[in-house]
Amino acid sequence: MIAAIEKPMSFEEFVTWLPQDGRYELIDGIVFEMQPTGGHEDVTDLLSTALTLEANRLQYPYKFPRRALIKAPSWNTGYLPDVLVVDRQTLAKEPLWQQEATITRGSTIKLVVEVVSTNWETDYARKFEDYETMGIQEYWLVDYLGLGGTRYIGKPKQPTFSVYVLRDGEYQMKQFRGRERIESLTFPELTLTAEQVFRAGH
């Protein structure tokens, strides 16, 4: 992730400026352009496909918007998640959805997935805090290269799939590695293992 524009923007200015191509986030008024690697895209694609198929199989009322922004409670901050799962039934209550494809209410979001890259601090700290504050019920951090700090993934550092589920307003974490099946509140019948996900990125 690299800074794209040094001049600070408000969230409203950012949404107006946002180009049709490229992937951008706004953090504290500064625009950052995302430049994912091939491995990052492969992991994202695997997860997006698996979750879409699972939602269709079970006929869940979910939608998977690819370019929707999450307007965070932090000052002039908007995130563009790697995978976003929202509830179609509550989407109609989102005040910015029709005009700006923006989500402002945590209750609309069933699951947010971030595939970790070199800017891992944002995923493990900043986004964690904002998503928890918004009340987003489930957050996945897919660290397929084991890049995160040891306080988050332990020593020695290794690929780690972290699932955070909201309990009494705070995220409770469970981590998966190797052939462990990923346990999800949103997709309880998912049969994907951590190893299958990590392999997609190599």
Poorly predicted tracts of residues:
none
- The total count of strands amounts to 12
Amount of helix: 25-40%
- Cα separation of the termini: 20 Å
| Strand residue percentage | 25-35%
Largest sheet: 6 strands, mixed
Derived from helix and strand composition plus strand pairing, the structural class reads alpha+beta
Report the principal-axis shape: globular
Q: What would the average pLDDT be, to the nearest integer?
A: 94
| Strand line-up of the largest beta sheet | 4-7-9-10-11-12
| Tally of individual helices | 7
What is the H/E order? EHEEHEEEEHHEEHEHEEH
How does the SSE layout of this entry go?
Elements: E1 2-5, H1 11-17, E2 23-27, E3 30-34, H2 38-58, E4 62-63, E5 69-71, E6 78-79, E7 83-87, H3 88-91, H4 97-100, E8 102-103, E9 109-115, H5 120-134, E10 138-143, H6 150-153, E11 160-167, E12 170-176, H7 194-200
Parallel strand pairs: 5-8, 9-10
Antiparallel strand pairs: 1-3, 2-3, 4-7, 5-6, 7-9, 10-11, 11-12
